[in-house]
Design goal:
Blueprint lengths: L7 H8 L5 H11 L3 H21 L9 H10 L5 H12 L8 E5 L19 H13 L7 E2 L7 H10 L14 E10 L2 E9 L5 E8 L5 E7 L3 E7 L3 E8 L3 H19 L1
Antiparallel strand pairs: 1-6, 2-3, 3-4, 4-5, 5-8, 6-7, 7-8
């Protein structure tokens, strides 16, 4: 066995099949003697399998005309590599291809911020794709767990990883218990996901991504099995997501979205 240290990145490389055969054999031999790391690798592989099961089916589908037109417009100013990355991100949007935007809720999230006309609009498609994917593949073992409702560890953890102060919403009074958070990769840098749980065990997630864009009021969107309220405050875009419910569930989610907006804006 090599004395070379095995880090988390190399475990991910093993899962993705990116190690050369010799190093792969060394890492697998090391895993046979380290049950905790082996368990993480097993969960990573299960998560990859879940993602493939969710999204592989759309890779051979034709893009909707509206997306083709949008990409054609972007090609005028995007480098080829960025255009390809945008195309891949859109191809992976199968689970949210059916999103229907239901319009703005008059709450003032965007109107309260003065934005220069040159500032680009919020990328709603990218936000929907990433927030929905993150919601679908929540993994308890990947979460930075909350110790109590008054614990500051999550706020410190997220702010350190994001590189800026991030306020942690408290929604216990609305029936949502904060159970953890995690940091995820995004096009503009790290994104944060806060995970809340209702008394019945249903999960509600808040996705926060860095995005310098025009402010957008709280807007409702829904797909076949997910419901979302999203908005932007010119520095970050936010998406509160849960499994689709009836109108009562929608109103409860809107109430939570308004509470998040108030707390973050204080």
């Amino acid at each position: 066995m090599s004395d070379r240290q095995i880090d988390e990145g190399e475990l991910h490389a093993l899962v993705d099949g990116e190690l050369d055969p010799a190093r792969q054999a060394e890492v697998e031999a090391w895993l046979s003697e380290n049950s905790d790391a082996a368990g993480r690798v097993a969960r990573y592989r299960a998560q990859n399998a879940g993602l493939h099961a969710l999204f592989d089916g759309v890779l051979n589908e034709d893009l909707p005309p509206v997306i083709v037109d949008a990409l054609a417009g972007r090609r005028q100013w995007l480098p080829r590599s960025a255009a390809i990355a945008a195309g891949v991100a859109l191809l992976l949007s199968g689970a949210v291809a059916g999103w229907v935007v239901r319009g703005e809720v008059p709450f003032g999230a965007g109107a309260a911020v003065q934005i220069a006309e040159a500032t680009p609009p919020i990328d709603t498609q990218e936000l929907m794709v990433r927030a929905a994917m993150a919601h679908e593949v929540i993994g308890d073992d990947d979460l930075h767990l909350a110790v109590s409702e008054d614990d500051n560890s999550i706020g410190q953890y997220v702010s350190t990883r994001m590189g800026t102060k991030v306020r942690v919403p408290q929604l216990a009074s609305l029936g949502y218990r904060l159970v953890g958070s995690r940091i995820l990769p995004d096009t503009g840098g790290p994104a944060a996901q806060f995970v809340f749980e209702e008394a019945g065990g249903a999960r509600v997630t808040l996705y926060v991504r860095s995005e310098a864009a025009r402010g957008v009021d709280i807007t409702y969107a829904l797909a076949d099995d997910l419901s979302m309220f999203y908005w932007n405050d010119s520095q970050y875009s936010y998406a509160l997501v849960r499994e689709l419910e009836d109108e009562t569930g929608r109103d409860a989610l809107l109430k939570a979205a308004k509470a998040v907006y108030r707390q973050i804006s204080e």
